[in-house]
């Protein structure tokens, strides 16, 4: 097993040469408690380490944020460079049109990846990022957990070599309210059969990988891997990973009746029914995502993309209930460019994110949409208002005929957690 590596992205501070302010007035013996405290106080390195230990203590985190189920999202970010580049660039979108967006990084350069192809973000979870070697074969890929706030990162040990070629996906689980430690869940095919899957778990507490449970089967079209360039299919919510069924070329769910979710603490695998289909053969699942401790699914009404239903999953996993209904024709009054010239193709848009506000009726939860022309807009689900949040810089290239990027936007959250 390879050793666990932790490095600090920022340079260490030098020990201060300035005398402790009390040392001129007090004649202290080197063995006295006050003298020891003075030595500690005169060392910036020691003070930083002590403060880091204090502010990352889980008890301290609970005192600072005792009621909120998860930290607040300050912005969204996504890979903006073309896939031919060796290292992706990242763009940040503010979630409030009046706020200046914090840009903690443009590219990921916290370490030199051994493959030399750069590093990309796969997932964001409560302030920590799961990153990996960019454009690398799985058997050679290195995985990292990175905190962009503190600039700390950890290099994960390689999973057993005989298992690495079977890896389907890696996902990060971190809940700072419950524990200062995080876990990385690996989903791989079983050595016994390609029709069976096996879960392996890495813990930052034990610094090692281990198998969890027995091999199992999954619905035929289940997706286990997140990507920087298309809609992620794995979501962390309520202590569980949810693996969603794959999309067809038309963005529609196939004929599976349920998805799988894995409760990390219990290490148990369960089934979750998909909301009842509204159409004979399929329905459109335009977006699935978590916000402020709630899991949402947005379902479209076919290719016309005019009406959307927003479902929320009950905390006890008992079922889905409809939260909002959205008529996109209201948005075209402000942004007519959403309408295609061909009326049979309906509205052109992509749902990037759903952001929940704690006081929904007062603050207004909202959708973040991408529309033609490189515009990112804010649609208030409560009062139906719409405004522009952000716009791609002039000359930015788009990826399809509809002038949509179809990017995967991830949540940026400031965190003091150690990795």
Could you walk me through the main structural features you see in this protein, from its secondary elements to its overall organization?
- With 419 residues, the chain is mainly β.
- It has one domain (55-412): 6 Propeller (Neuraminidase).
- The chain contains five helices and 24 strands.
- The chain has helices spanning 33-41, 44-55, 58-64, 161-164, 360-363, and strands at residues 5-8, 75-79, 90-94, 119-125, 128-133, 143-147, 152-155, 167-173, 183-189, 197-203, 208-216, 234-237, 240-243, 258-263, 268-273, 284-291, 294-300, 307-313, 320-327, 350-355, 366-371, 375-380, 386-391, 410-412.
- The strands form six sheets. Strands 1-7-6-5-4 form a five-stranded antiparallel sheet, with no helix packed on it. The protein has a four-stranded antiparallel sheet with strand order 8-9-10-11, with no helix packed on it. Strands 12-13-14-15 form a four-stranded antiparallel sheet, with no helix packed on it.
- Strand 22 and strand 23 (386-391) form a beta hairpin.
């Amino acid at each position: 097993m390879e050793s666990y590596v932790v490095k600090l992205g920022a340079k260490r501070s030098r020990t201060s040469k300035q005398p402790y302010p009390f040392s001129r007035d007090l004649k202290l013996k080197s063995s006295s408690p006050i003298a020891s405290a003075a030595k500690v106080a005169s060392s910036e390195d020691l003070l930083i380490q002590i403060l880091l230990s204090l502010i990352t203590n889980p008890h301290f985190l609970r005192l600072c944020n005792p009621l909120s189920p998860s930290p607040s999202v300050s912005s969204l970010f996504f890979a903006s460079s073309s896939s031919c580049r060796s290292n992706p660039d990242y763009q940040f979108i503010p979630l409030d049109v009046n706020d200046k967006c914090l840009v903690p990084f443009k590219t990921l350069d916290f370490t030199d990846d051994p493959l030399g192809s750069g590093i990309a973000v796969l997932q964001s979870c409560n302030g920590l990022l799961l990153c990996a070697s960019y454009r690398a074969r799985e058997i050679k890929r290195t995985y990292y957990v990175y905190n962009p706030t503190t600039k700390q990162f950890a290099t994960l040990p390689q999973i057993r070599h005989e298992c690495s070629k079977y890896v389907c996906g890696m996902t990060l689980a971190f809940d700072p309210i419950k524990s200062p430690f995080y876990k990385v869940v690996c989903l791989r095919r079983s050595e016994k059969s390609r029709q069976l899957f096996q879960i392996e778990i890495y813990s930052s507490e034990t610094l090692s990988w281990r198998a969890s449970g027995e091999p199992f089967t999954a619905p035929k079209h289940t997706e286990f891997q997140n990507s920087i360039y298309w809609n992620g299919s794995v979501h962390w919510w309520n202590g569980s990973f949810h693996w969603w069924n794959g999309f067809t070329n038309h963005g529609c769910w196939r004929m599976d009746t349920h998805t799988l979710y894995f409760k990390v603490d219990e290490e148990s695998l369960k089934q979750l029914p998909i909301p009842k289909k509204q159409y004979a053969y399929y329905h459109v699942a335009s977006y699935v995502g978590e916000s402020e401790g709630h899991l949402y699914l947005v379902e479209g009404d076919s290719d016309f993309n005019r009406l959307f239903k927003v479902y929320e999953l009950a905390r006890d996993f008992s079922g889905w209930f409809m939260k909002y209904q959205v008529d996109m024709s209201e948005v075209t009054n402000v942004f007519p460019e959403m309408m295609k010239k061909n009326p049979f193709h309906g509205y052109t848009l992509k749902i990037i994110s759903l952001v929940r506000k704690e006081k929904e009726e007062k603050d207004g939860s909202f959708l973040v949409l991408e529309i033609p022309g490189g515009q990112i807009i804010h649609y208030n689900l409560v009062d139906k208002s719409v405004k522009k949040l952000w716009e791609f810089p002039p000359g930015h290239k788009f990826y399809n005929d509809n002038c949509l990027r179809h990017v995967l936007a991830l949540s940026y959250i400031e965190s003091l957690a150690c990795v």
